[in-house]
């Protein structure tokens, strides 16, 4: 984490120092996307990082195509038709799976003397392959790699982008597995419920009159005491399906922000246009240009 971040901030400093006024506008949204992809690829694939990045690049393109087609009206069966977008989706899917399979196979062939596949995420998952009932199949390992990249990349990247404004996942969805009562509402089995995290995070009912103000001191006694309901902070969800990467993400954000703040002063560029858009995670539609100035030359 720290090594990836330091190489990014060193590059920023070099660019700023080269400039006449010793400052530089940096497109933070793009930089954070690249940084968090590097961090998650290193964590997942260690030494096979470069190949992992290739696989994740294909997954990102695939995700964008799927997000675009998910806004179309869905006609059952059309996902199997060889349309231009489906052909592109299938091609990227094959490319990504091939890269991941290559990484796993080369790791299988290079098992070290102590019969371990390594201490990155891939190695740990492959080591479980050797044991009895928890054994993971190649397919399952590939799916887990995809999940971790999807769940741990844009979330953290957009979290860094907004830092103290918004949470990156703005709503949760649940489907009722049986008829149930929720407060005064009867929820029939099969109903989809959306939980509006952003609205809950801005509710004066839970957070008090200053709900819309940036007040980090409200967390001084811990997250569960910050509001008048212990689960009012839902950024990582709560319960058995809450975010498995929460501690990783917290560590990543603290590492990145502290390494940046130690080195630069910064201000928002006049080019910035405030237009958050929900593309599965909340993103700045027109990027985040920030002017940075090194604190020391
Ligand atoms: C600021 C960053 C992050 C935010 C705001 C975030 C938010 C969330 C939320 C709200 C959920 C629950 C989704 C639901 O219940 O419908 C979730 C689940 C999950 N997150 Fe994160 N996440 C972040 C970073 C990460 C990272 C870095 C990883 C992995 C390294 C990760 C892996 C996962 C996984 C695997 C799940 C599914 C858990 C399950 O269904 O059992 N997340 N995340």
UniProtKB/TrEMBL annotation:
Its main location: membrane. SUPFAM superfamilies: Cytochrome P450. The keyword Metal-binding applies. Its cofactor is heme. The keyword Iron applies. It is a single-pass membrane protein. InterPro entries: Cyt_P450, Cyt_P450_CS, Cyt_P450_E_grp-I, Cyt_P450_sf, Cytochrome_P450_Monooxygen. One of its GO terms (cellular component) is membrane. Heme binds at residue 243. GO terms for molecular function: heme binding; iron ion binding; monooxygenase activity; oxidoreductase activity, acting on paired donors, with incorporation or reduction of molecular oxygen. Keywords: Heme, Iron, Membrane, Metal-binding, Monooxygenase, Oxidoreductase, Transmembrane, Transmembrane helix. It is found in: Membrane. Pfam families: p450. Belongs to the cytochrome P450 family. This is Cytochrome P450. It comes from Trifolium subterraneum.
